[in-house]
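Technical annex B. To support the medicinal chemistry partners, we prepared a structural model of the target in complex with uracil, based solely on the information shown next.
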Amino acid sequence: MSEAFATVDVISAKRDRNELSNAQIDWVVDAYTRGVVAEEQMSALAMAILLNGMNRREISRWTDAMIRSGERLDFSRLTRPTVDKHSTGGVGDKITLPLAPLVAACGAAVPQLSGRGLGHTGGTLDKLESIPGWRAALSNEEMFKVLADVGAVICAAGSGLAPADRRLYALRDVTATVEAIPLIASSIMSKKIAEGTGALVLDVKVGSGAFMKDLDKARELATTMVALGVDAGVRTRAVLTAMDQPLGRTAGNALEVRESLEVLAGGGPADVVELTLVLAREMLELAGLSGIDPADALADGRAMDVWRRMIAAQGGDPDATLPVARHNEVVRAEHAGVVTNVAAMPIGVAAWRLGAGRARKEEAVSAGAGVEILVGVGDVVQPGDPLLRLHADDETRFESALQEAIGAVSIGHASQVVVGPLVLDRIGS
Ligand code: URA
């Protein structure tokens, strides 16, 4: 078939800081999906986009072209309003686990298509797979059935959803082009729009443990994604939240499931509970269920009931004992003082090195591996007090994990303790 454009002309247009036309965008995304645009050509275009950017029309058209590369799900047969949440990823971010059943317990339907971890941030599917029997891969019919019967489903995105993004994301990962805001925004939003949710809350992480290190960049990403959602008819709002410290007291798959169960049982760390409730309120409001207080559904066990049914519907045993790693090592305080910081990035990297994450897509993760944080900011410690407990199945992993973990907890004076807000900003109407 004769092609509408020459790929080099599209690349050079963006290299020379020109706008791409709608026709060029439609063609290049489609031709990449068909294998006509080679990986090295798409790499060059992705780098040109990273360096020279895209305007709102180009990003919107690019997103649309990625949606059209695959199928669109349709939940219009459901009687409940649909609402989903997406987090741009952080250390110890297990919020999806209590949040999806909680919002379902309040009357919405939550179709949560999630991913696996790569690098220092964990993936929701890896966490849930530590529950014996639980299955991430569902057909569209199975997904719809769990959603209709239980009200919440957390599963892997099928291969039919935005296939252009699947390839492009893998390419960006190895060409240092992940950070381009037009590409992040279109990647996330193409999957969420194709998924067919009626409303969407974005948790955009900001800080040393996040993709976006500074507030201005995070705001730009959030504003771009909210505009894409609104243009596509999805009620979309973004919450910017701090990711300088890990969320909660655990980073690692089974460890995070255990902590999520504490939240669903009405306890758990204050920051995890706070963020779960903030996001639940935003989701319920966008779903038209604003009169309902999600705190009640956590306290009275309704969210836990939905969790149990959701896990069982996907083959998991909600009563099964969660895996525990074979070995552990404790990091202790070297001197007396007050804990002034627990840094997200070294905790995430340590958990990853212990086996909770993977360095390559095809690697398996260890369910029991990870880091337990035994102290909080403001705690007074004495020499020898335990700060962190590291868990691994493979003892040889401790050495490199300890190199990261040892510097993660800062000990100083009470005057150095600064506790900032968790929620930094909110974007969207
Ligand atoms: N998550 C995605 O799905 N895509 C990105 O580009 C970044 C995070």
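Notes passed to the chemistry partners:
The domain at 83-320 is CATH 3.40.1030.10 (Pyrimidine Nucleoside Phosphorylase; Chain A, domain 2).
The mean pLDDT is 95.
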